[in-house]
Amino acid sequence: MTNETDMIKQAQSGDVEAFERLYDRFYTPVYTYIYYRVGDRSLAEDLTSDVFERMVIKIDDWKPMGKPFIAWLYTIAGNLVRNHLKRQKRITWLSLNERDADSGENLMTLIGKKLQHEQLARALNQLTEDQRQVIILRFLQGESITAVASAVGKTETGIKALQRRAIHSLGRILEKEGVHVAS
Predict the structure, then answer these.
(1) Is residue 163 within 8 Å of 138, Cβ to Cβ?
(2) How many domains does the chain have?
């Protein structure tokens, strides 16, 4: 299997299959990051498409410089989300739509999951922008401290401190909503 740097170099030279492999590898983490920022499946899909469109256009601008490629994609995604939210001036909450009900899951289980996602989305929206990004990237995406630091533009030490504050704030917010948070 081709390593990430080789795929990027191939994409930079115009290899369409390399772009497809990059898309396949990074679609899910980018989509999930955006989804937890905007709370709307359709909008997240649209913005994710925009990220990969920009990736294709700007691939020649990417240089390794010790930063993972996914951090570059998260930066693009974060900029697109911020621009969208500035234009919209509102947050769209997660919805329970008919397509979800077709998955064969018990309706009550599905509703429970949606409520948990809504509680999390509301709680995340009460954090600062940096805290929200750290929580999403570290815990919902499973990214390393290094990748998060690169995506957010802070030092690793700064991310660790921000992560501690974000966890504490998120715990307080969820406790206020009646969600028991284990210590």
Answers:
(1) yes
(2) 2
